[in-house]
Each structure stands twice: as C-alpha cells, then as structure tokens.
Amino acid sequence: QVQLQESGPGLVKPSQTLSLTCTVSGGSITTNYYYWSWIRQPPGKGLEWIGYITYSGSTYYSPSLKSRTSISRDTSKNHFTLQLSSVTPEDTAVYYCASNWAGAFGSWGQGTQVTVSS
After folding, report:
1. pLDDT at position 102, please?
2. What is the pLDDT of residue 50?
3. CA–CA dist 5, 7 (Å, integer)
4. Residue 103: its pLDDT value, please?
5. What is the DSSP code (8-state) at residue 16?
6. How many beta carbons lie within 10 A of that of residue 12, not counting itself?
7. CA 16 to CA 39: how far, in whole Å?
8. How big is the CA angle at 99 (ends 3 and 49), to the nearest 5 degrees?
9. Which of 10, 61, 63, 77 is 20 to 30 A from 53 via CA?
10. What single-letter DSSP state applies at residue 29?
C-alpha cells in the first residue's frame, strides 16, 4: 500500500514561492504508469487539480496555474515537489498529493494547510 506525506511551510508571504514536498513510501515514484499529482482545496471551495509528474518524469499542469507551477522529483529520495510562484491570498488552501494509476486516484496524503499572508 502506497503512502504519501506532504511537508512544507504552513505560512507563505504574498509574492513568494510556495514549496511543498510529497514523500512516498511503500512504492517507487518510478513504477511504470503511475502519475503523481498535486491537488488543493481552498476554504469553502471544491478540489482543484494543480498538476502531475509521471513515472518517467514528464509533467502536465492545469492551464489556469501553468504559468506559476513547477513539479519536480528526486528519485533517490522517492519524493516529488510542488513549487507555486507569485502566490496571493487566493492560493490559501489545503494542499494534497495523490497517486494516479489507470486514470484513477489511489492513495492520498493527509493534506497540509498553506496560508498566504503577510
């Protein structure tokens, strides 16, 4: 059973870059056909998919966030990282990482609250 755990600062100042890491255990992020996603949920709103990185290292981002988003990975540490630049208070949300296989979400992290405030 794959397990995921998000980590990173809970408070980010406006205009700065938000950086979160998702550490995966119980499986490798290079396992064929697995995709590794970032999703967020702003307060009082629904889930918003941010982007993913594939088992081979390819990335794809939500068009609405693409200009500010970068997802990378460190295979030696079996983790992948989200960077979201030029944040505003509208980026305040609970951020989740999750696994995807065959088009379906599988395991999720517990989520981490990120607040953008000066």
Report:
1. 85
2. 98
3. 7
4. 83
5. S
6. 21
7. 19
8. 125
9. 10
10. T
